[in-house]
């Protein structure tokens, strides 16, 4: 068993009226928000998926099932903190995160740094260990028609020294 593992995460939610748009724990000004059981933060969900995948611990729905009243409208940053704790209990810590949000609208340039700050603070990582980028779908498909927002994330985790196998 190695001391490092890599995980990839993906999430997508439809845009709807009447919800606040939350990405990376930041309320982003926009006329629509994302539909989902929690706050539907696709960026944070993709990061959670990558972390759980790297540790071989299943997926977000296994740990925080939709329909469970404990997680209705919950901040995904709370869930991210819980996943960090689960990884730490299993002997892992996150080394770095690299993520991309795919959204035709809204433009996210002004929100990237606040997202990085929220995510790095929640994960207990240095700012330069959390990368958030924004891209579009160039007008193609449901993302290009502004029907939803998606996010991808890759993470590297490392076994804690106390529990490492040498």
Helix coverage percent: 25-40%
Strand order of the biggest β-sheet = 4-1-7-5-6
Tell me the quaternary state.
single chain
Give, in order, the helices and strands. Answer: EEEEHHHEHEHE
- Rg, nearest Å: 16 Å
What global shape is seen?
Answer: globular
- What structural class do you assign from the helix and strand content? alpha+beta
Estimate the strand proportion: 25-35%
- Give the N-terminus to C-terminus distance in angstroms: 9 Å
Number of domains: 1
Mean pLDDT: 95
Largest sheet: 5 strands, mixed
Low-confidence stretches: none
The total count of strands amounts to 7
CATH class: Alpha Beta
| CATH homologous superfamily placement | 2-C-methyl-D-erythritol 2,4-cyclodiphosphate synthase
CATH topology: 60s Ribosomal Protein L30, Chain: A
What is the count of DSSP helices, taking H or I runs of 4+ residues?
5
CATH architecture: 2-Layer Sandwich
